[in-house]
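Weekly puzzle thread! Below is a chain. First person to post its structure in token form gets bragging rights.
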Amino acid sequence: MTPKRDSVRILLTIAFRNLLAAPVRTAILGGIILLGSLIVVVGTSVLDSIDRGMRTSIQGSLGGQLQLYDGRSEDQLALYGGMTGESRLEPIEDFSVVKAALEKVPGVKQIVPMGIDQAMVATGNAFDLALERLRNDVRRLEAGERGPELERSYTAHVAHVKRMIELLAADYAQAAVIVDLDSKEGAERRAEAKSLTRVREPEFWEGFDRLARGVLGP
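Winning reply:
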């Protein structure tokens, strides 16, 4: 026999002798290795299945492999929405132009237009309800209706709206501390605060009352 074969035979003999010398230890180590291999194989298979399933589900039925949207959009594209709801995207006015340009790109197989939007129906907030009640009183006054009951209702609804305005002004004052007034939202908040200041002035409500009663002049 050659020296190489002798070496292999000796190594195998030592290996089997060690296995038989401590069968309990061999069984424990073998079980640990078997369990670890089983976890790795099964875990890898499960992850591969999940990856293939999600890729087929999302790319094949919703998002494709690449999404394009108008660069003028306020938000970035988010297929499943974000923390503030659906993305605010500018519509692509002429899809045929975009499609013609994309078809010239190597590797592009198919181009599918897509639309994402949502709608919300609201019944009105507390301000809307209070203003609607006041609006109904004003309609009755404009129609020439008079009477103690209408006067009490009109006075109460005006006082209610004024109180709500004061509470809203207090909330705006607190929000102004944390709002970045140099941002786009900050500019909107400044405009809203200006309107809020106007409706808090006595002159505004004096003019409102004259118009509601159909009284002309100062």
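Puzzle host: Confirmed. Bonus trivia for everyone else. The mean pLDDT is 80.
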